[in-house]
Amino acid sequence: QVQLVESGGGLVQAGGSLRLSCAASGRTFSSAAVGWFRQAPGKEREFVTVLRTVGAGTYYADSVKGRFTITRDSAKNIVYLQMDTLKPEDTAVYYCAASTRTYLLLKSYTSGASYEYWGQGTQVTVSS
User: Fold this and answer.
1) Which residue(s) pair with 18 in the sheet?
2) Which residues, 6 or more positions from 105, have their beta carbon under 8 angstroms from its beta carbon?
């Protein structure tokens, strides 16, 4: 069992930065792939990025590539999402998710169906 808790959301001006944290409990988290998704009001949930521990690798949505960075502190069981050069269109509730299906192709983690565990979400609002 894995429990995920996001934090670090808030209000920031366009061009600013935020760092989100996804703190996990549960022994299977150490090898799980961890992804970030977001959902804006009236829109479907969309993939942001994933970090896979087994086999390594990261993958980013085109909309955030070059601006967002996912990293992991294994000692603390925390995955971070560093978000730079934020835009108003980045406004959304951000969710982290964990998948113990470590054998999937990296691109498979762009689907929410690949994850078994989800956090409660943290709001990010970017003002223009």
Assistant:
1) 83
2) none
Contact in structure between 53 and 62 (CB atoms under 8 Å): no
**Range name among 20-24, 26-30, 111-115, 121-125 with the lowest pLDDT average:** 26-30
- Backbone dihedral region of 57: left (phi > 0), alpha (psi from -120 to 50 degrees) or beta? left
- Please report, rounded to a whole number, the percentage of residues in the chain having pLDDT higher than 70: 100
Q: How far is CA 13 from CA 41, 44, 107, in A?
A: 19, 24, 31
Q: Is residue 41 over pLDDT 80?
A: yes
CA–CA separation, 85 vs 62, rounded Å? Answer: 14
* Contact between residue 4 and residue 117 where contact means Cβ atoms under 8 Å apart: yes
Cα gap 85→26, rounded to integer Å: 33
For residue 92, how far is the Cα from the chain centroid?
A: 12
Q: Is the pLDDT of residue 33 over 90?
A: yes
CA distances from 43 to 40, 55, 66, 89, 99 (A): 5, 32, 23, 12, 23
